[in-house]
Amino acid sequence: MRTIVFLGNETDPHLQHVREYLRLPVRVIDVSRDRLSFRLRPDASGYRVTHNGEELDLSSDSVRAVWYRKLSVPRLRPNLRIRPPEEHGSAVSAMQHFADMLPGMFDPTVFWLPTRAACLAAEDKARQLLVAAASGLAVPATLYASDAAEAQAFVDEQNICMVKTLAGCAPDGHELPTARRNREEVRFNSPLVTPAQTFQESIDVQHDVRVAVVGAQAAASIIEDTRPKHKLTPGVRDVRAGFAHGTCRAYPYTLPATVRQACIEYTREMGLPATYLDLLVDRRRTHYFVDGNPNGAWAFMNWQAVENTARAIASMLESGQPPWPMAA
């Protein structure tokens, strides 16, 4: 029987939801914890791959589909001790490079949800905005800059804007949330350079909406941080801050038909079988696209959106077929 290979963490809540609807067995490969090896065959015809001591058959005869959640290495194996401590960073980097080799071990005809290459291409923030606008979604005025003079000019022009980092990670406890700042609060010490950041037009937001698109299906939820206003960090405009306090709540939301179709069109144009979008809805019911993530979270959405998304992902994995031509 063919299997579904899940590249991610065994405790990923998204896996637990989708497993409820899968009839095929699932093999989980967690590169940050499992034992893996790739041995090149003498005739260079391929690799012998072992996972926790067992040789794997990664051909299309054995693997129905690969669900690629994430091959990051946020932590090292508990039994791996790094001395001296300053070598920890290089050890994590080595493990990441090792993990990055894994996709090349699979039969190229196997369906991936999504491919690693498509994920990397889809993380281009500027491209996201261009594709979103071309797909029919509103986008806020935006500047990506490491030039402090350009950033200052944009902030002065907008008067009030949203400022967020372009960094993909930060030390635990030091995450940088999206913040709403006026031009008096944003002043750069040097006119030459600043850490690369995103500066966006401030929207009069009524709702933060997360949209899960899987093929031609789109499910949406309103996401709110339910803490009282006096407990919110002044200036922070980021519902993710509520996750740390356990105060994020999700409520059902029905997308207008034109917005729903635009979200699906965005996913198709990005060459992805599925993606997860963040929209801001203002008081005029304009839906602004602000971010897309091909490996985004959806398990925190309202139960009906979670169930529909899990069913759609399970169906796509078991079919082993993309909903439309995929990015290379």
Structure description:
The protein has 328 residues and is of the alpha+beta class. It folds into three domains: 3-113; 115-138 and 204-328, D-amino Acid Aminotransferase, Chain A, domain 1; 141-202. It is 25% helix and 27% strand. The chain contains eight helices and 16 strands. It has helices spanning 13-19, 88-100, 116-122, 125-134, 148-158, 241-245, 257-269, 303-319, and strands at residues 3-7, 26-29, 36-40, 47-51, 54-56, 63-68, 111-113, 142-145, 160-165, 179-182, 197-201, 205-214, 217-225, 248-252, 274-282, 287-293. The strands form four sheets. The chain has a five-stranded antiparallel β-sheet. Strand 12 (205-214) and strand 13 form a beta hairpin. The longest helix is centred in the last third of the chain and has 17 residues, at 303-319.
What's the shape? Answer: globular
Strand content: 25-35%
Rg to the nearest angstrom?
21 Å
Rounded mean pLDDT is: 84
CATH topology of the largest domain: D-amino Acid Aminotransferase, Chain A, domain 1
CATH architecture of the largest domain: 2-Layer Sandwich
H/E order of the elements?
EHEEEEEHEHHEHEEEEEHEHEEH
List low-confidence stretches: none
